[in-house]
What we know:
Blueprint: H1 8-12, H2 28-41, H3 43-75, H4 77-114, H5 121-128, H6 132-162, H7 169-197, H8 200-207, H9 211-222, H10 226-256, H11 263-300, H12 302-308, E1 314-315, E2 322-323, H13 329-334
Antiparallel strand pairs: 1-2
Amino acid sequence: MAQDWASPTLAAAPTAAPSPHLLRPLTTGEVLDNTFSLYRSRFWLFAGLASLSGAWQVVAQGLQLLLHHMMLVHFGAGTARVVGQFNSLFSMAVMLPVSAVVHAAAVYALSEVYLGRGVTAGEALKATRSKWLRYVGIALWQGWAASWVALLLLVPAALLLLVPGLKSTGSAIVAGTLVFVGVLAGGIYGVIAYIRNSLAVPASVVEATGVRASMRRSKDLAAGTKGRIFVVLLIVFALSMVFGTIDAPLLILIARHPLQEHIVAQGVILLISFAAQTLIGPVSIIGLTLVYFDQRVRKEAFDLLVLLGPTETVVDPAPGLAVAEAAHEPALAAEQPLDPADPIGDDGRF
C-alpha cells in the first residue's frame, strides 16, 4: 500500500471514507483493534511524525553527552555532574515544544483520517505549529497534575536525608516513610490524574480550545471511560517494556561502572530510545484520540453531527479540520467560569 508521509501526489489521491463502525460506540476491544488497524494502514504518516520528535531527542541528548564528556575531561567528575543536571533541564525545555507539536500534529492527522480525509505529515505540522504554546501548556499541566502529590512527599524526604543539620535516626525513619507513601500513593494518584487529563490534546486540536478549557473538557469526556484509557496506556507500557528489556543489559553495565563514560553503550541506548518513540508513540496517540471520538459519539452524538455535514459545523482556522461545536457548547455554557486564583481547576481537583 502506498504511504502518505509527505508526498503531495499521494495526498491528492482520493481517500476512502471511514468504515461505518468507526462512527458508533466502540467496545474496548474495537478501540484497540482500530488503533492498530489505523496505525498499520498509515504507518509512515504516524511513524514519520513520531520520528521527528525522536530524532530531536537524540540530537539534544547527544549534545548533552558531548558536553558531559568535555566537562569530565577538562574539569573533573564533580563539575561534570553539576553541569549535567542543568543541561538535563535545558534539554527537557528544548525537547518539550517539539514533542508537544508533534503530538498535536499526530492527533490532527488521525482526526483527518478518522473523518475520511487525506492528510500529509507536512500539512498536519503546518496546521498545529502556530499553537505550540498551547500544547506545551497542556503538557506541563498534565505533568504537574500527575506528579504534585509525589513531589509534596518526596521533596521533604530528600531534605531530611541530604541536609546535614537534619540527619538523624528519627529523620531517616520519617524520610523512609515519606518515600514509601510518596511512591505508592503519589504513583496511584498520578496515574488517575494523567488518565483524567489524557484527552486534553485531542480536545484542544479538534475543538480549538485553550489550555484550561481543554483540561476541563478532558475531565468531562474521561468520566466513565477511565478503565478503557487505562487499558490503552497499559498496552503502550507493555510495548515499552519490550524495548526496556533490550536496554537493561546496557543500563546494568553503566550502573556497575558509573565513573566510566560508556560512550558506545549510551549511543546504543539513544538509538533504542529513538526506535521506541518512533514505533510506540503513535499507538498511545491513536488510541487516546479514538477514545476521545468514541466518548463524543456516546455523549454528544458526534456521529450524527458528522453525517449532517459542514452546514452544522464550525470550521477551525486549521485548514481542513471540521469542529463540531454545537454538541458541547451547552455543556460548557452551563459550567461556572474558572477562578483565576485557582491554578488547579474549577472543581478544586486535577
